[in-house]
Specification:
The chain has 288 residues and is of the alpha/beta class. It has ten helices and ten strands. The strands form two sheets. Strands 3-2-4-1-5 form a five-stranded parallel beta sheet. Strands 6-7-10-8-9 form a five-stranded mixed beta sheet. Helix 6 packs across helix 7, helix 7 packs antiparallel against helix 8 and helix 9 packs across helix 10. The chain is elongated, with a radius of gyration of 24 Å.
Length: 288
């Protein structure tokens, strides 16, 4: 039996002709919000990234309804259909497989088209893997850069990381477990073994796990088989070195230059301290 929801006035929930972007649980189904359930039941039409996944969610809460697919391969074609529904006064819901739609998920062409056509787009907020990870990582996160999934190809991933690891903000990445060792190896090679990293696996699920250490230490644990690598990961990487860290890295660089070339000293000082080595080239004090 479908759940019945009511407004404070005791009336069934009535929705206007609008697109409702609905967040759904990232793992634990109990995390769904009351408003999300109300909207999922009340919308005239419901779009989902994977209809099978969404039907399982709806069935769990006793909501029997039709679901239309809307994913990266057909979302452009869905725009006209959604606008037709809206022009006929229908309300439309949009969900992804899990979490908040459009965050590393399809949907932005549809949202943009609906707004440009003059119809409202309403957020029905709820679970987000990014916010959940930041809340329990124990890292400063008043500023952070969300970069989502990195390219799967090694060369493209490393090129992207070269820029990201120089960021003065906490870095948030999504990654599949099987690629985590490669990611840790790239972070260690480009930012130094001492860069702090937090791995958050299967958030809100039965096997949720958090591992916090340096990139080098986590890489060693991954290569030894100590880390469980199945499932979905959020990876937090500490911001690039701040002024005090840079000053220490420069001091180490200058000491090393007494025994080796300036370029070699800069490269080694970067590996020791985790400071981006580009910050250590130039301004050398000289040496042998």
């Amino acid at each position: 039996m479908a759940l019945a929801f009511a407004h404070s006035q005791g009336q069934a929930l009535q929705l206007q002709a609008a697109l409702y972007v609905v967040a759904t649980p990232i793992g634990n189904l109990a995390d769904i919000t009351l408003r999300a359930l109300q909207v999922l039941e009340a919308v005239d039409e419901l779009l989902a990234e994977d209809t099978r996944c969404t039907r399982r969610l709806l069935e769990h809460f006793g909501l029997a309804r039709t679901v239309t697919s809307c994913h990266e391969h057909n979302e452009e074609a869905r725009v006209g259909q959604v606008l037709t529904w809206l022009r006929h006064g229908k309300s439309v819901g949009l969900v992804s497989d899990a979490g908040t739609p459009l965050i590393s998920d399809p949907g932005y062409p549809l949202v943009r088209a609906v707004r440009e056509a003059g119809f409202p787009v309403a957020a029905v907020p709820g679970p987000s893997a990014t916010i959940a990870a930041l809340s329990i990582a124990g890292m400063p996160c008043n500023e952070f850069l969300f970069a989502g999934f990195l390219p799967a190809r090694a060369a493209a991933r490393r090129a992207r990381l070269k820029t990201l690891l120089a960021e003065p903000r906490l870095l948030v990445l999504y990654e599949a477990g099987r690629r985590v060792p490669e990611l840790l190896a790239d972070i260690t090679a480009r930012a130094g073994a001492t860069r702090q990293v937090v791995l958050l696996r299967e958030l809100t699920k039965m096997h949720e796990e958090v591992a916090a250490a340096t990139a080098g230490a986590l890489l060693a644990r991954a290569e030894s088989g100590e880390l469980e690598l199945r499932g979905e990961f959020v990876v937090l990487v500490a911001a690039a070195a701040e002024a005090g860290d840079l000053a220490e890295a420069l001091r180490i660089r200058d000491l090393l230059q007494e025994e080796m070339s300036p370029s070699r000293a800069a490269k080694l000082a970067a590996r020791i301290t985790g400071v981006d080595r580009r910050s250590l080239y130039g301004g050398a004090t000289g040496g042998k």
